[in-house]
Structure formats: C-alpha cells, structure tokens
Amino acid sequence: MIEFPGTEQEVRKLERFLTATENLPSEVGLDKMRERALFHAERLSNAVNIGFAGEFGAGKSSLANMLAGADILPTGPQHLKLPLVIVAYADAPETTVGWWDKEPKVYSGIALEKAAADNPDFISVGLNTPALQEISLFDLPGTGALDDTYKSTLDLLSYVDCAIWCTNGTNAWRETERHLWAQVPQELRSNSLLAVTHADLPPVRDALDRVLHRLEKEKGKFFRSVVPIGTPVAVKAMAQEPEPDFDLWETCGGQNLAEQVLQVASERRLKDLEAAQNDIEQEFLPFLASLNIAEAEPAQVEAPSIHATLESALPPLENPILEDWLAAIASIYDDLRETSDIEPAAFLNSCQEIVEDFAERLEQGGEIATEADWIPGEFEKATDLLLLLQFESGDAPLKDAISILAQLSDNLAWAGSRVDSVQAKTGT
C-alpha cells in the first residue's frame, strides 16, 4: 500500500516559526524566510493537486469520476459544458462557484447545473471521500485540435502538481496533443502520466500492444509512464456486489492507474516535505536560536527588544514533564541493556503502559503550553498503536515502538510547560 508522508510535525514547526517572527521588525532576509515558511505550510497542509486534461472525447471526466469513486462530473459528447472543476475533500457535500476577481458562492450538495448557470471561472465540488484528504482532482476543460483552447489548458495546468493527459486509444497521441504537451514545464511532465483511454473497445484492445510499444518509445521526457485504461470496465468492477471484482479491476488497468496516481502524488508530497525540512533545519530554527544568542550580547542594542517580541510570541517554557518522560523511557532502555533475551511482547507492553500513564497525566491539563493542546491526542493514538504492535511478529514492531517513543519525546520537547502553570502548582 502506498502511504503519504506525514507532515504534521513540520507544519507545527513552520507555524511556530511564523508565530515567533510575526512581530519582529521587517527586513529583507526575514521577510523572505517568512514567505518561504508560509509557502511550505500551505503546500504541506493542502492536498496534492492531480490534473486531468486531454482533447474532447478523450474520457478525462470519466477517469476523474472513477478515481473520485463518485459519478460527479458529466460525461459524453453532449454533456454540460463546464469550466475547470475541482473535486476536493469536504465534511459534507457542497458546490462552490468561483471567480478569479470576486467572492465565491456556495451551494449545499452537488449542484453543477446551478453552478454552471452562474458563469463561473471554476467550480469546486466537496465530497466526504477519505482519498480526497490526500489528493484533489482538477478536471480541465477539453481542448480542440484546431482552436486556441489549448492556451487556457496550459494556464490551468500551472495550478496542478501532477497531471494525467488522457489520449483516446482509437487514435492515440496525435500531433496536436504532442504540440500542446511540449509547452508544459518539464517539472510537471516528469510528474505526469499518459492514460490511453477506451482500452476496453475491441479496435483499441486488438491494437493495444502495438500502440503501447510506440508510445513507450515516444514518451521520452513527456511522461513518466504510459497507462492503458478501460474506464467503464473499471467502474463496473468496483461496483460489483457484495464486493468489487478485483481481478477485473486489475486486468482493465484500474489497479495500475490508481497505484501510479498515488505513487506520483506521494513522491510529490515527499519532495515538498524534504524542501520544508531543509529550510526548517538550515534557516528557520537557526534564526530562532540566533535571537536567544543576540540577547546575551550587550553590544547589540536591539537585542532586548527582539527578545521581548519573541517572548510575547512564545511564552517562557519549562519542561518538568519531559524530564519525567525521559526518565521513564530510560528505564525501559536500561532493561534492554541488562537483559539480552527480553521478550518483544514484554517490551511493547512496557512501552504501552508508560505512554498510557502519560496520556492520562496530560489529559489532566496544566503541564504543557496551551498552544500544544494537540499533544495529549498524540499520546492516546500512540497507546493504540503500541497495543496493535503487540499482535505483530519480528523486529519491525520493536523499531516502530522506538520510533513512536522518539516522536513523543520530540513533541514534549517542543511543548514544554508554561512557567506560570508551574508556579501556580507550586505556589511560587
């Protein structure tokens, strides 16, 4: 199973940096760092945008419906003419009508016809579909072979992170398509797939090996992969009761396409994450540390005011709960060092008990900063994970448990405890 990299910790670090620096005097270097931090936080907090593009009749809307798991977008030659349609996650179904130069309008439920009547620049459809928490689908208007619609397609492709160009298998990868795609930036092309649609039709199916052989030779720097797909068959396979026909889903190309889309989106998210981590480690955290260093240098007249600003953004923290936590997990590691034949189940159970104890302690409140109120939930989730690990075998669960303890240590090290909370408890 393809998993998306977790980004919560990095987003919290970025938010901390932005909070700590929001009241500092403006200067070019700091302003640029804040711009990058905002960019990283937005990238990591939003889904990866997957664009569907192609000439009229290529089956891109049907393909987007298939991956969304819902028959949302109209299909067929006589379907409702729509602008860019974005299918994204929402707690409840809703349709947002958008314009580039004015406030949007929101309708409850799925209301594409009503939205189209408003003559919008784009429409966003919100669905409560778990997969859409990681990816958003951009269904771009179809292009024509002899008109200038490809220019708007190129403009809209700038909003997506990865793309699927749909080419009709009955006449795959025509010169007009090649002309448009050659103008797409190389970074997007390297994150894109060429979907050969209508692969279920007999004329396409009979010639598919020859077509794929040609496209594999031609793809070059245009696409990372060529994927044939019989969309109607794939939809039929997933609609089977009481459970989907997974053999049919695989043979029609649905499985391959879904995996390729998730893989390219996951790699894009990892690239964003690594870029954010690099800025955090190389620039943002050293800058925050320099503020504390500046305070100790009396020759720098502005240092006290800078530190005062930082203090107002991040109240002074102490960490007695972190000390207790480190002492608790140190006792587990001591047992590991002293006993060469400790049972994995016993180790995992000890980890679970300690995490559970601290989860209860954190729930009582008062020991961590208010802006770190998410941490008790992390301990509760870790308790459940450690319980599940006890039912697995091998060394992997032990490594996972150690990673969980290390992550919780990082969380507590960041959060600390408010000085005023500690003083209130001790009466000082």
E-strand count: 11
Strand order of the largest sheet: 4-3-5-2-6-1-7-8-9
Proportion of beta-strand residues:
5-15%
Average predicted local confidence, pLDDT: 83
Brief digest:
The protein contains 17 helices and 11 strands.
Topology diagram in text:
Blueprint: H1 8-21, H2 28-45, E1 48-54, H3 60-68, E2 84-89, E3 94-98, E4 105-108, H4 112-117, E5 122-127, E6 135-139, H5 149-157, E7 162-168, H6 175-181, H7 186-189, E8 192-197, H8 202-218, E9 225-228, H9 231-238, H10 246-251, H11 254-295, H12 303-313, E10 317-318, H13 320-338, H14 344-363, H15 375-389, H16 396-415, E11 417-418, H17 419-426
Parallel strand pairs: 1-6, 1-7, 2-5, 7-8, 8-9
Antiparallel strand pairs: 2-6, 3-4, 3-5, 10-11
Helix pairs in contact: 1-2, 1-11, 2-11, 11-12, 13-14, 13-16, 14-15, 14-16, 15-16
Textual characterization of the structure:
- The protein is of the alpha/beta class.
- 54% of the residues lie in helices and 13% in strands.
- It contains 17 helices and 11 strands.
- The chain has helices at 8-21, 28-45, 60-68, 112-117, 149-157, 175-181, 186-189, 202-218, 231-238, 246-251, 254-295, 303-313, 320-338, 344-363, 375-389, 396-415, 419-426, and strands spanning 48-54, 84-89, 94-98, 105-108, 122-127, 135-139, 162-168, 192-197, 225-228, 317-318, 417-418.
- It has a 9-stranded mixed beta sheet with strand order 4-3-5-2-6-1-7-8-9, sandwiched between helices. Strands 10-11 form a two-stranded antiparallel ribbon.
- Helix 14 runs antiparallel to helix 15 (375-389).
- Residues 293-317 and 418-428 have low confidence and may be disordered.
